[in-house]
Amino acid sequence: MRNPFSVEDVIEPTGADVEAFLAAVKPNAVPAIDENALAWVTTATGEEGLDGAWASRWREGSNPWHQGVASLRVLGDRAFILYRDMHTYLIEAQIRGDKLVGRYVNLGNASDTSPWIGLIVDGYRIDGYWKGGRWDLRRCSPDERPEPIVAALVTEARQLAPAELRELLVFARFLRWRGTGGSGEGPGTL
């Protein structure tokens, strides 16, 4: 058994289809505007490096996100990620510079498997890709820890239709403008 979680190993974690997928994946050229750049995790873990607890989410195409938790362990040149939501998955990936290159398998259904590539942005963010869409890992760094009310607003805003979200943003800009006394030059009276 290669993995540290005492579960079935991933078969051919770096097979030919994984290498072909790596060549085909085009990560966002501007990491700051990637959909995983927003601190969607509201609890800081206090951990640094790759090992440890992560929040994780995946989706197929533009469907809704499935959120779960993940534990990542590095052993030599390999990263092992045990992910849980309503299912349990194991990702085994080779560490290649700023990339994790490998494959996942659904531990309850071995036919549910695909190449997976992770771009390590830093110790708080891994932008992940699988054949069907995205599979990201995220931690909230101490610098991005939102206040609970902001986290609740962000969670609610993600549920809005585009027109509703635009309306909310217009209202927020109005409140900011009104808070500056309408001049945009500092606090005013409400």
Which CATH architecture of the domain at 16-138? Beta Barrel
Beta-strand fraction estimate: 35-45%
Fraction of helical residues: 10-25%
- Rg result: 19 Å
> Would you count the extended β strands for me?
8
Short account of what is shown:
By secondary structure, the chain is α+β, with helices and mostly antiparallel strands. It has 3 helices and 8 strands; from the N terminus they run H-E-E-E-E-E-E-E-E-H-H. The longest helix has 18 residues, at 162-179.
How would you explain this protein's 3D organization?
With 190 residues, the chain is an alpha+beta fold. The protein has a domain at 16-138: Lipocalin, CATH 2.40.128. It is built from three helices and eight strands. The protein has helices spanning 16-24, 148-157, 162-179, and strands spanning 52-60, 66-75, 78-84, 88-96, 99-106, 109-122, 125-130, 133-138. A hairpin with a 2-residue loop joins strand 5 and strand 6.
Give me the secondary-structure topology:
Blueprint: H1 16-24, E1 52-60, E2 66-75, E3 78-84, E4 88-96, E5 99-106, E6 109-122, E7 125-130, E8 133-138, H2 148-157, H3 162-179
Antiparallel strand pairs: 1-2, 1-8, 2-3, 3-4, 4-5, 5-6, 6-7, 7-8
For the structure shown, list the relevant keywords.
190 residues, alpha+beta, Lipocalin, eight-stranded antiparallel β-barrel, 36% strand, globular
